[in-house]
Amino acid sequence: MWFKTLWNVNSEKCLGFSSLIRRHLSVSSRTVIEKGAKDGELRIFIVSGEVSGDTIGSRLMASLKKLSPLPIRFSGVGGSMMSKQGLKSLFPIEDISVMGIWELLPHLNKIRVKLKETVEAALLFQPHVVVTVDSKGFSFRLLKQLRARYNQQRVDVPVHFHYVAPSFWAWKGGEARLKGLASFVDHILCILPHEEEVCRANGLAATFVGHPTLEDVSELNSGRSSSLHELKIEGNSEDFKAKNAIAAGATVLSLLPGSRLQEVTRMLTIFANTMQLLQESFPELVTVIHVAPNRHVENYIDRVVCKWPVPAVLIPGGSPHLKYDALSASKVALCTSGTVAVEMQLARLPCVVAYRAHFLTEWFIRYKAKIPYISLPNILLNSAVIPEALFQACTHSKLAALLIELLRNDDRREEQIAAAEKVVRLLCPPERLLKNLVDSPVHSSSPSMLAAAVILYHERP
Fold first, then answer.
1. What is the mean pLDDT of residues 205-223?
2. Is the distance from CB of 457 to CB of 32 less than 8 angstroms?
3. For position 407, what pLDDT does the model report?
4. What is a single molecular function from GO for this protein (predicted)?
5. Under CATH, which architecture does the 2-218+428-456 domain have?
6. Which residues contact 16 (CB under 8 A, 6 or more apart)?
7. What does pTM read for this prediction?
8. Which helix H or strand E contains 454, and what residues bound it?
9. Any residues with CB less than 8 A from the CB of 403 and at least 6 apart, and which?
């Protein structure tokens, strides 16, 4: 179809790609690609401030390299995944990976220094495009300062993209904040279906490209076609149990404590106490702890697991096959709120979502939030399908009770599995783009490919 006529991946030659996709995106003047052609290369400054953003950024970089008819040079900030795609990070991603409001205060000076370093590096790099991925606190300050410096110096201004729309829609008065972004953000790449309309209603150019976690499907199910409503990942449960000497009658429970050190130190203590309680009801309990690819987190979990109350298997970050094998072997999961809730949907693994923060951060969320849920599946379905234990209610006794109910109630688990199919369907890239971009199973047109296409052929002033 359309995509195959304009790009021959095997020969790596562009066949009218620019003109066709520009027409699809309603672009009328110079695109980013056309601007980069004058310099013989495309310079992209890309910044991610956390582990989940590092994965998104790495996939976007791979898609940009695949789609661009020009050589691409990257600079910016990222983690191990982005480094595999050719990024030499200005500094370790952990230096700016801080969550919460009050938790940020002790790190403000260091982050200011890193922000200044990033701004200067971007100006020196002279990019055609600047892409920030999630981490809105750092990202928006960076884009705002860059735009001010470019205007001050009266030099050519690169296009500013932000990948993952800020969840201002979830906060009281939050949508009004979107209007202020238009002065330094040129385009938002949205990962939730309703966000494009919200952004556009507030004066921001935006495109819903699908949820990036869905790309796990195409990476792990290669060679297997899936229809839209069947998108799921089936790991090798038996192989995982055999390799880790897990008895056939054991109750396997996956724990996903988070990706930032602050949340892991807070949540893992609660999780450990929860497992101690669960052991009374499930004597053959085995926990699988998923470790984020963050060196501080890795070191911390290595120390804590020595005193873990039940047998534990550690799953290193950056290994999707191993992660989904472990999820397949698990009966339920206990997750810290975040992107992992979507991964549970792809694995069709019932779960409980937990969240604790600094008490002032929790107070702020309770006061400002206008939606009753914190996990994305519940938000999308507007229903408490996934049990949540939040703030003061997030105790080891509460979590143990929720997990026991889920482990013993087949109907509750089946309800979550059925809901997961609906969630995945909502998070898929929009059909109006897919039908023009690919002639293959729906999942093969990944969110990162759609995002890369929007970036490369975006109109420049």
1. 84
2. yes
3. 97
4. phospholipid binding
5. 3-Layer(aba) Sandwich (3.40)
6. 5, 6
7. 0.84
8. helix 447-456
9. 253, 274, 278, 332, 334, 352
